[in-house]
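## retry 2 of 3
previous attempt timed out at serialization; input unchanged, resubmitting
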Amino acid sequence: MIRAKKSLGQNFLIDKNILKKIVSIIKIKNKSILEIGPGTGNLTSYILENCPKKFFVVEKDRNLSILLKKKFEDKITIINGDILKINEKNLYNEKFIVFGNLPYNISTEILAKWILNLDDKNFWFDSLILMFQKEVADRIISKFNSSKYGRLSILTNWKLDVDKICDIKSSSFFPKPKVDSSLLLFKPKKIFHQFKNPKNLEKITRVFFNQRRKKLKKPFNILFKDNTEVLNSLKIDLNLRPHNLSQEIYYKLTKEYEKL
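## retry succeeded, writing output
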């Protein structure tokens, strides 16, 4: 009997209605599919029913990898490894549709890795259909001037358009987690700001949101040393707080920082 491992953040999706809804979001037939954390293969089965062209799954748990091999044989290519250590661009020569019931404990780390490592000219995926803890999903889709708005929203919306598909009750999983989840659809943007180093966007947002309830004056001076030109050109009021600045302003601040 397979037991869910708390250390790997495993909660298996068992609600058939939700599983059917996930595979109906986007056309799967003759597409290349990558599934992250397939677990016992519940979603995998529904994906296979839609006749993908090529199907890779990444599963860190060795016991589950063995189970998946017995269950699906050569219908899927199983990679027993850590998604944080895999270069998805080297898996196949076509773009993927990615499905993932991401482990709660590393979901934001996975998303950040994908965004920061994206090739500006050639994305390795066509779309991401990912499940997050509802609280995390709310932060991803939050808009400025809201309490949940912050680094995750700014980073995600830099290169991706995000739509919320639905919320999913904790009772749809086994073992039942303590929180609900949300399903999000991500699509690559065709036009976005170009940075010399994406890590600079991370730095800008980290400094500004380090004390999110404080006014902008201190973090601005840490990064820009009272640079009035930047202030005036971007029309920033230092009496505001980090969550009051739009994503666009943070992208422009990053560009100004790279000029220094």
